[in-house]
DNA sequence: GTCTATAAGAAGATAGAC
DNA sequence: GTCTATCTTCTTATAGAC
């Protein structure tokens, strides 16, 4: 890993814990193992480092969602996956999304940084909303809509179903960002939530 | 309103928008309409102002929850309220909690400040979790548990029901903190969510 | 209780040697 | 590409006049 990347990495760690303004360039340099002026050979300013983090996340996020949408645009395959093992598949999807968000090193630090910086400007606010509200909701909505069409699930409004499915995951995620020691708790609640979600919406159980 | 209170108020506004570290005492003084050194006649340091905000919130929060728990410890009265106009009452409770959280000036600015500062130390993290996760969940859980006992609602696990009820409210709340212009959207979704919640859990509709 | 003046230090950033 | 030395500006905080 070259110095430029190490600067980005160290900065993301520090920004995600203390916020952009509370971190000094000397602190970043320290974490990298160089002196502050050396940073300026790699980035022209402190803000430039921050922008570098945003750019890298942009690339990673596009890769990630492109991979997901590939499945999404292939309803036949997804129908096959979900129809065979529906409750387990739902739990798998939920827990999978949750642990990815929570344990992927870059995603997790980036989300914390965005959480801290979201009120600074509208662009960061929009980015947070996109990544942790709108995109997940529309993705879940698509999946649940397909399950409805397949006749597996009740014919409820998909966007409200998506909200029911995703919001608890989101709440537990922000909880674990704050208090990582409560992750086992959160995982247990998440699994119970999905089981109940499945029981409620699955056709033929209660209707 | 005396100067000491005006300092607290101006500081809370600034801290909630930019974070503690990004706000200078000169900026606070400017907002109050005095010069920076004059602040030190009212508070011994910048940190002392921050602590003052925490203390005032502590007092307000205790008053608020004390008022709520009075109802909570009176199951008979609550049962009467909810059994008569169940769906409307649920919607009223949800929208009411939501708009209180979102429009109470002090609560709203304090929550934003906590959002920004939550990763700085464990005490602030715990405070956030208490006010916006644990306390609301346990309160909703109590209410829903009572409705179950009354035979109005299905006999599902109250804490999971509370999560289903509250998590969407929480997600939409954090969304509106970031993008206030989406409040009409959020309110519409919230109402639909509660209607569907009621339809799903209310006895005699689907079981 | 408010002001001006000022101290004492930390911050971001540059110059130039190696 | 990294360093030391340095500049400039900003920041918290104090002293002391009014």
Question: Gyration radius of chain A, to the nearest Å?
Answer: 20 Å
Give the low-confidence spans of chain A. none
* Helix and strand pattern of chain A: HHHHHHHHHH
Per DSSP, the total helix count of chain A is: 10
**Shape call of chain A:** elongated
Helix/strand/pairing category of chain A: mainly alpha
**Biggest sheet details of chain A:** none
Quaternary state, please? homodimer
Outline of the structure:
The first copy, chain A, is mainly α. Chain A has ten helices and no strands. The model of chain A has no long low-confidence stretch (mean pLDDT 91).
Question: Secondary structure elements and their pairing?
Answer:
2 copies of one chain form a homodimer.
Chain A: H1 3-18, H2 25-32, H3 36-39, H4 46-72, H5 75-84, H6 86-103, H7 105-117, H8 122-149, H9 158-178, H10 183-201
Helix pairs in contact in A: 1-2, 1-4, 1-7, 5-6, 6-9, 6-10, 7-8, 8-9, 9-10
Chain A binds a DNA duplex (18 and 18 nucleotides) through residues 3, 24-26, 34-38, 40-42, 44-46.
């Amino acid at each position: 890993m070259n110095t430029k990347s190490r600067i980005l990495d160290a900065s993301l760690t520090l920004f995600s814990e203390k916020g952009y303004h509370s971190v000094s360039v000397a602190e970043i340099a320290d974490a990298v193992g160089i002196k502050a002026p050396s940073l300026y050979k790699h980035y022209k300013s402190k803000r430039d480092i921050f922008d570098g983090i945003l750019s890298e996340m942009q690339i990673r996020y596009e890769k990630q969602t492109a991979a997901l949408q590939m499945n999404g645009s292939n309803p036949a395959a997804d129908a096959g996956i979900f129809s065979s093992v529906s409750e387990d598949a739902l739990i798998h999807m939920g827990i999978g999304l949750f642990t990815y968000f929570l344990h992927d090193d870059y995603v997790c630090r980036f989300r914390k940084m965005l959480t801290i910086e979201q009120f600074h400007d509208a662009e960061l606010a929009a980015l947070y909303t996109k990544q942790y509200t709108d995109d997940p909701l529309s993705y879940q909505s698509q999946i649940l809509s397909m399950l409805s069409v397949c006749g597996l699930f009740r014919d409820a409004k998909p966007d409200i179903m998506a909200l029911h499915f995703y919001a608890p995951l989101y709440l537990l995620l922000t909880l674990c960002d704050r208090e990582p020691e409560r992750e086992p708790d959160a995982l247990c609640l998440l699994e119970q939530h999905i089981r109940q979600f499945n029981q409620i919406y699955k056709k033929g159980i209660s209707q």
